[in-house]
Amino acid sequence: MPLSHTDVRRILEILDSAAHLESLDVTVGDFELHARKPGAAAFSRERAAQAPASRLTAGEAAQEVVTTETSTTAAAAEVLTQVPEGLVAVRAPMVGTFYLRPSPDQPEFVAVGAAVQAGDTVCLVEVMKMFNTVKSDVAGTVERILVGNGKPVVHDQILMLIKPTKGA
């Protein structure tokens, strides 16, 4: 019995809300989920070196410094935990893979400096072959994109920062 998108989301919500849990490993058949809260005990580097790249833990994905693939995003990005004053964060709704394009042959949804309206799609987060749109909550200008296209993200990770339009 494979895990559904809803099952994975619920597991991650449990980890997020449980104060006494720092990490969670779930294996169902061939599917493995390794989730770690930021600041949790370090995942065994020996085991991580043996695991395929597609099996990064959620904590490692959040701590990874990302080099982007396009000139429209920052050359190197850090993982932010605080939103700078005057900016609004666009956050990952779930653990998955971040995409700036609807498909490889299509243009990016947004780039640094692009104007967006509230409700505009700014990126996708893919989980188990399901693509989830992420929309801007405010009208403004994209100030920073913090994740590279095709890189793993964790629930509630800051993906990009938007400077709201005055009066928005």
Automatic annotation (TrEMBL):
Keyword Lipid biosynthesis found: yes
Keyword Transferase included in the entry's annotation: no
Pathway(s) per entry: Lipid metabolism; fatty acid biosynthesis
InterPro entries, per the entry: AcCoA_biotinCC, Biotin_BS, Biotin_Carboxyl_Carrier/Decarb, Biotin_lipoyl, Single_hybrid_motif
Single GO MF descriptor: acetyl-CoA carboxylase activity
Membrane-spanning intervals of the chain: none
UniProt KW keywords: Biotin, Fatty acid biosynthesis, Fatty acid metabolism, Ligase, Lipid biosynthesis, Lipid metabolism
Annotated Lipoyl-binding domain residues: 87-163
Function: This protein is a component of the acetyl coenzyme A carboxylase complex; first, biotin carboxylase catalyzes the carboxylation of the carrier protein and then the transcarboxylase transfers the carboxyl group to form malonyl-CoA.
Record-linked PANTHER family: OXALOACETATE DECARBOXYLASE ALPHA CHAIN
Stored NCBIfam families: BCCP (TIGR00531)
Name assigned to this protein: Biotin carboxyl carrier protein of acetyl-CoA carboxylase
Species assigned in the record: Variovorax robiniae
Gene name in the database record: accB
